[in-house]
Amino acid sequence: MEVELLEATEDPERLLCTAARNDYMGEFVGDLSFEEVMATTDGDTMEEKKRTLIGHLLDHGHFGPFEHPQATFAVKGISRSCMAQITRHRHVSFDVQSMRYVSFDEVDPAAVEDGEMVVTPPSATDPDWVGRNQQAGQVDEGTVERREELFRESVRRSVEDYQELLELGMPPEDARFVLPIGTEVNMVMSMNARMLMHVADMRAAADAQWEIREMTEEVLDLAADWCPITFEHYEEHMKGRKNRLAP
Fold first, then answer.
1. Which one, of 199, 218, 223, lies nearest residue 8 by Cα?
2. Is there a catalytic annotation at residue 203?
3. Which of 9, 67, 162, 199 could join 192 in a cystine, given CB atoms 3.0 to 4.6 angstroms apart?
4. Which residues, in sequence order, are bridge partners of residue 96?
5. Quick check: 238 and 196 in contact, CB under 8 A?
6. What is the pTM of this model?
7. In DSSP terms, which residues pair with 73 in a beta bridge?
8. Which listed residue (156, 203, 213, 244) is catalytic?
9. Rounded alpha-carbon distances, angstroms, from residue 146 to 123, 139, 152, 183
10. Where does the pLDDT of residue 130 fall: very low under 50, low under 70, confident under 90, or very high at 90 and above?
11. Coil, strand, or helix at residue 183?
């Protein structure tokens, strides 16, 4: 899996601070400099002023201003299973690689042994992996070897059957029915900063599925560079709390 920030609002925290101050000012923020907009906010430097205001907004549940900054991410190589989970967030915009128009007829079925085309879950190879509904994950060496063998055989057989169906003239949109839910796809998604925090509340949580949790953590790493004060505060004071942020 790879996650890349394609495009994002420039200086997002200046924008959200301006929007937030607009709510409590008699003047029109469009006629003022950012320094004038932030003049009454506590702090000796502009960085301190932004930190004061952003922390106050997040601590008091004033999330509206965080809907103005937008970011677009490209995600490479997630499973259809992970894609089905993330696309449930209807306030996020998605474009997903189409398996109707993109066929995988040139993939070597033997290459799935190396993880190509299909995502391999850790439990297929790790004898100590503990899933969400398990108390313990440890199994003996023979069991995990058979588990991996069965997984690889099933995937390889599905890919071979898919490619044979294409050769027999079945359209990709129908041949894809035999492919496993772990088949890799690429995706582009856009969301605002508030929605990103909501997604993180749901999908970076300890009880989230491992793949979507990994994807969300990578998105959060990129968000920390894009919108640093906001997501530093989120990581330190909000992430993992019981009361999750609503969309």
1. 223
2. yes
3. 67
4. 187
5. no
6. 0.91
7. 5, 189
8. 203
9. 12, 11, 10, 21
10. confident
11. strand
